């Protein structure tokens, strides 16, 4: 048995079935979803070592704007400094570990409510009252912890272990594919939050295939975005794209050019940054995994200043939020039904449809990160 799969609760043969060519491939074994041992491995390999979305640039638009994010046990603050640079910092005081700030807002500095240590927006320690006489105490050594961060198409990402390859280079082909939609300059509005008592991959798989439109969304999405018309281009980096043409669009397999205003693109930047773009809006899902069977989902809609001038922004956000919530409630039923089945003794693996190429692409990436190499599991 290869070293990468040792101590995981599924066999090398089961994983090999998921790594076969798409027309022959199975799903990941159920234990890849239901095991806390697998989840712990994911945290170290597929989460902390990768780029994770923490927000949008417009959420920290001006100097002093900050956004607090709790991610994989880290208490982070995303803040725009006086130099206009956006940083991701720990919001834990370097003195006794108290939390400096919560929520979202604007500030000139961070001051600890416990002992009044004060930090500049760039994380440097500015003041530490009554520390005179403490041997070898240098304020320069006690700034807030910085995390490696990057911006892509208006989204802000953090890499918790600081070892990930540059984000923009790895996503350049995806940027090219979605360039028609101009999502970088849009503004985000939070529409809904859902506590989700199932595995994070169940939602990623659901978001990234339109095969389920024929049943789960038969009265909502299927009439305008028929699942059987969806297709997936080959990926050249840590992402997948699902193209969903409108029902009356010509049968073409090209990147979008505006000829099909009904077209919807669903995208995932691995492991779990999910977003969908169309001519009319951009929607993104922010996941906060906590365990193998627990995560929080926040759903956002993004609009440019000239979107839907006939309606007020508040009306537009409210209307969009109602639509997104209705669709996601349908998806919750599907995800919870899947989660129940994955936890039964008799279910292990299923076969993928050719319409589920995005899931197959993700599974190849997942195996490489979590197991160590897709080749180790066999062809």
Features:
379 residues, six-stranded antiparallel beta sheet, 8 helices, 16 strands, globular, disordered C terminus
Q: What features would you describe in this structure?
A:
The chain has 379 residues and is α+β, with helices and mostly antiparallel strands. It folds into two domains: 12-51 and 168-377, Naphthalene 1,2-dioxygenase Alpha Subunit, Chain A, domain 1 (Alpha-Beta Complex); 52-159, Rieske Iron-sulfur Protein (3-layer Sandwich), CATH 2.102.10.10. It is 23% helix and 25% strand. It has helices at 12-18, 31-34, 36-47, 167-170, 172-178, 200-207, 313-342, 357-371; strands spanning 52-56, 65-71, 74-80, 86-90, 104-106, 110-111, 118-119, 125-127, 146-152, 155-159, 187-196, 239-244, 264-269, 273-277, 282-291, 294-303. Strands 1-10-9-4-3-2-5 form a seven-stranded antiparallel β-sheet, with no helix packed on it. Strand 14 (273-277) and strand 15 form a beta hairpin. Helix 6 (200-207) packs across helix 7 (313-342). Mean pLDDT is 94; it is low at 374-379.
């Amino acid at each position: 048995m290869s070293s990468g799969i040792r101590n995981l609760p599924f066999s090398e043969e089961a994983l090999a079935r998921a790594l076969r060519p798409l027309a022959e491939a199975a799903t990941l074994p159920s234990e890849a979803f239901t095991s806390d041992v697998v989840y712990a491995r994911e945290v170290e390999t597929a989460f902390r070592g990768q780029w994770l979305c923490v927000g949008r640039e417009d959420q920290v638009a001006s100097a002093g704007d900050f956004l607090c994010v709790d991610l994989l046990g880290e208490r982070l603050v995303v803040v725009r400094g006086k130099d206009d640079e956006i940083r991701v910092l720990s919001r834990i005081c370097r003195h006794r570990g108290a939390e400096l700030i919560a929520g979202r807002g604007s500030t000139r500095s961070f001051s600890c409510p416990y002992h009044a240590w004060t930090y500049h927006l760039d994380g440097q320690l500015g003041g530490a009252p009554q520390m005179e006489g403490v041997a070898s105490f240098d304020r320069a050594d006690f700034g807030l912890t910085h995390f490696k961060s990057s911006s892509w198409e208006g989204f802000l990402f953090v890499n918790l272990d600081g070892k990930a390859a540059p984000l923009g280079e790895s996503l350049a082909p995806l940027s090219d594919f979605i360039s028609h939609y101009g999502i970088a300059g849009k503004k985000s509005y939070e529409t809904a939050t859902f506590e989700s008592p199932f595995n994070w991959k169940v939602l990623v798989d659901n978001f990234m295939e339109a095969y389920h439109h024929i049943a789960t969304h038969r009265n909502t999405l299927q009439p305008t975005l028929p699942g059987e018309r969806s297709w997936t281009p080959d990926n050249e980096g840590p992402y997948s794209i699902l193209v969903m043409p409108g029902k009356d669009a010509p049968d073409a397999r090209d990147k979008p050019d505006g000829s099909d205003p009904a077209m919807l693109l669903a995208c995932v930047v691995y492991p779990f940054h999910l977003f969908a773009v169309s001519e009319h809006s951009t929607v993104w899902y922010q996941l906060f995994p906590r365990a193998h069977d627990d995560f929080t989902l926040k759903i956002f809609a993004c609009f440019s200043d000239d979107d839907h001038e006939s309606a007020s922004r508040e009306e537009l956000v409210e209307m969009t939020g109602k639509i997104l919530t209705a669709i996601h409630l349908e998806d919750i039923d599907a995800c919870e039904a899947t989660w129940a089945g994955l936890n039964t003794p008799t279910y292990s693996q299923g076969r993928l449809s050719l319409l589920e190429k995005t899931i197959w692409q993700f599974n190849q990436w997942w195996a490489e990160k979590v197991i160590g190499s897709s080749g180790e599991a066999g062809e």
